[in-house]
Design goal:
10 helices, 10-stranded mixed beta sheet, alpha+beta, Cathepsin D, subunit A, domain 1, about 40% strand, Pdz3 Domain
Amino acid sequence: MKPKNNLLLLYQKLFLGFMLLFTSVLFISCSEDIKKEIIFEAGVVDTIHFNYSNQAHIAVPLKIDSTVYDFIFDTGAHTTIFDDEIAMESISNHTSIFMDYYGEKRTDKWVFPEKVHVGNVSFLNFNDFKQTSLTISGILGNNILRELCWVIDFINGKIYVTNDIKNLKLQLGEGLPFTLRNNIVHVNSQIGGNTVPLIIDTGDPTAAIRMNNRYLGEDRKVDMIKWKYYRDPLNIYNESKPVVEDSSYETILPLKLGDRIYGDELVKYVNYREHAGVGLGFLSRFEKVIFDYPNRKLYFLGEGHKTVAYHIEANEALNGSGVYVGLKDSLVIVKGLSNQVQKEGLKLGDTIIGVDEVVFPKSLRDDFFQEQKEMMYYINKTDNDSTVQSFEEIKNSKFMQLTTKLRNLDTVAVLHVKRKKEFVNLAVKPKVNFDKFPDTFQTYTQFNLDYLPILYTKGHMYKKPHIYFKKE
């Protein structure tokens, strides 16, 4: 009888285990169906004002409990991520590994806020949020975005959100179909002679098309300009140490999206991203961009002329001195340089203490941060703002003289460089690798563009309120 009793006990345990498993799965699936909820009245179009003051990221208000945070509106993020400084009641003990924008491995945790609000839309018990260490409050990603239809209005600085695109009452064409791969927006495109799945990434500030090096043929590498530079200071993930990127090439190719063809696109080849993508520098050339997630359609409204951001990025990448400078600890340092300038002896991280006959005294170097702050105030100032320096004062600052000289170089410039205790003088020469710019540039921002070096407006006219640059 004992073997039979053991066998019966085994059957009972297996049956009990199966029932527990079945009940758990049923409970989880049912609880997800019950818990996950969007509170948003059907037929309503909500308006959200966004912050785009640095022309790098769109920031929208996201509210948790009674606190409002600025989150980046990021169609290139698979889920919403919170900075680890934001207190969360429910946090998973388990960590996971993910790859950031630059392909670096990072850790995050699952978090479970009961409710978050974006505008007048409430998202209840979405269980796929993450938390990690950021330099910003957070990233609004596609676990939220994919539920609704979103319109980015670059002219008016607003985002409109609704549950059905018909509520917008806009005259639209067929739209560009997109898919969600790993919960990220992809469209089919043709870049040069390659068919490429393209990420539409509002979290990427660049005007250039980003492509992986695998699309770069060996026959074209010879004519490319290779850059080495410290990673973008706008990187939203905390860095433990400065990281040098040395894998970028720039070229000019046509881009085809649906039935639209865009000529002379700046293409940046990198090795840290697997997929190609376009960011805000490309998208902001349109009046409106619509992400219709329920119907998986993308709409570009407006003519889509090249932007001033494109003009600046193309010049800095392909033309000019091949040197990019920035500020670090009250010093002007080389933050980027092309392979052409490396041959002249300049190195990444060199300290620039002067240019040509002008050597910057230490007192002026200490003032550079204040000068840069005044410049940003001037760019964004209103007519009622009387606390900001005049443009003439800012334009004549030593830092502006240096950056303008390097960007607008038409003759040889001698840089006075300090490396530890060594002082050297290095000559940089103007390079023009691409002189065929499109006839029209435009911007829908409200910025005062008088601060732009003459290179970017030379031979062009502009008018307001929407500023168009046209060749004479």
